[in-house]
Write a structure and sequence with these properties.
Elements: H1 7-19, H2 23-38, E1 40-48, H3 49-52, E2 63-66, H4 73-81, E3 85-87, H5 98-101, E4 111-118, E5 121-131, H6 139-170, H7 180-197, E6 201-208, H8 211-218, H9 220-236, E7 243-246, E8 251-257, H10 261-277, E9 292-299, H11 306-322, E10 328-330
Parallel strand pairs: 1-2, 9-10
Antiparallel strand pairs: 1-5, 3-4, 4-5, 6-8, 6-9, 7-8
Helix pairs in contact: 1-2, 1-6, 2-6, 8-9
């Protein structure tokens, strides 16, 4: 009977995963160890493509982002049941699906699958394919893969938490937009790019008109929902390169790379109209219409520093608040 790997083996696996900062490298090293320990011909990791958006994991030769169909193929069955399994003869197993379970250049004889679980959710499947001896995989092999899948799950969970912590540090909890910290960093980068390459960029200051009255009439929870929906309007109507920031209570800042003051004015005017015509809180059965005032300033046309740029955009916006509201002003 083959001896099951010792505690030292799993300690080594843990050391590999905790010492490698790159998730792809860590999982690859883990699966290579599994392949060697079980004397397998090949390995692969199929991971749900939607979950991959949340972690720093790239597709590679053996790591594949996959749109799973629960219960389709051995891998889909493992994903649906959330338990490891061994198939000693793929040809005789009715669950085998060549599209899901196949591997390029290999005739699948025997294979093992173990679920990759993160936060009590199965997000992928680890696979070992064909023993080099030609024999089917044994229960001891499956036990090893199952234990390694727990190690892999912890590594992915750690990467997920790091990504989440990073997001929290630069995003606003309420709206999901970037926060004040990220704004400062982004403007400094745009200033550096402008000084190096002569590029223009603009900043828009935006303030929701009369949000205090909404809070007083309907409550602060309603006011918060208005802020959330306003953030959605901004996201839907800005370019991917533009940066929307939740600045203060009812204020937003928008950074527009490669945009002149005139271009920034046009963007602000378009956003003003979109907010003006939007009906907020329809789903809550409390339809509201709101407006917003905007101020636009450009670097380096209007300002020579980050502080001056923000101050000028803020002052331009405040001019609108003191006049008619629901208006766009450009910095003088």
């Amino acid at each position: 009977m083959r001896k099951f790997p010792s505690i030292d083996f799993f300690n080594e696996i843990t050391n590999i995963l905790t010492s490698v900062s790159d998730l792809n490298k860590g999982l690859t090293a883990l699966m290579k160890e599994a392949k060697a320990a079980t004397k397998s011909e090949a390995w692969s990791l199929l991971i749900d493509e939607d979950f991959c958006k949340k972690i720093p994991l790239r597709s590679s030769g053996n790591i594949r982002k996959f749109k799973f169909k629960y219960g389709v193929g051995i891998a889909g069955w493992t994903l649906a049941k959330g338990v490891p399994m061994v198939v000693r003869s793929a040809a005789k197993d009715k669950r085998y699906n060549s599209r899901v379970d196949g591997a390029p250049g290999l005739k699948i004889k025997s294979l093992m699958c173990a679920p990759l679980r993160v936060n009590d959710r199965t997000v992928g499947v680890l696979r070992l394919i064909n023993k080099k001896s030609g024999e089917p995989f044994a229960d001891e092999d499956l036990k090893l893969l199952a234990n390694l899948s727990c190690c892999a799950g912890l590594a992915v969970e750690r990467a997920f938490l790091y990504r989440r912590i990073e997001e929290i540090s630069i995003t606003d909890d309420l709206t999901g937009l970037y926060n004040f910290r990220f704004m400062n960093h982004s403007i400094e980068m745009e200033i550096e790019r402008s000084r190096r390459y002569g590029a223009l960029f603009s900043v828009i200051f935006m303030d929701i008109d009369n949000l205090k009255k909404v809070n007083e009439k309907f409550g602060h929870l309603t006011g918060s929902k208005v802020l959330i929906e306003t953030a959605g309007v901004l996201k839907e109507n800005l370019r991917k390169v533009d940066i929307a920031i939740k600045y203060g209570g009812d204020e937003f800042v928008i950074i527009l790379p490669q945009t002149s003051r005139e271009g920034g004015f046009l963007v602000a005017e378009r956003l003003r109209k979109m907010i003006e015509k939007n009906v907020f809180l329809k789903k809550e059965g409390c339809p509201l219409r709101i407006t917003a005032s905007f101020g636009v300033a450009s670097f380096p046309d209007n300002a020579k520093s980050k502080e001056e740029l923000l101050e000028l955009a803020d002052k331009a916006m405040f001019r609108g608040k003191l006049s008619t509201k629901n208006v766009v002003f450009a910095a003088k």
